[in-house]
Amino acid sequence: VTKCECGHSFGDYRRNWKLKASISVRNSEAALAEIYPNSDIADPRWMEIREFICPDCGTLHEVEAAAPGYPIVHDFQPDLEGFYRDWLKKPLEET
User: Fold this and answer.
1) Phi, psi (5° rounding) for residue 85?
2) Structural domain spans, the chain
């Protein structure tokens, strides 16, 4: 299970936790100007900023920049079975 420090569960670790987060999308010049100084603002027709936030406590967990319409990125999937088997020399307990 992927969890926030507050205890909120984002679900099974094999699934993209970002799909269970609150998502704030910065996709306008005004929204991008809040985080980019001066004229360093990206063109919102080519890039948006996605902020993934815990729906319970409001912790910002990740930010990704992507082309508008690009699928939400699944960054990482740990091989917990292999870690337990090869490093800890015991089976992964199912919860």
Assistant:
1) -65, -50
2) 2-88
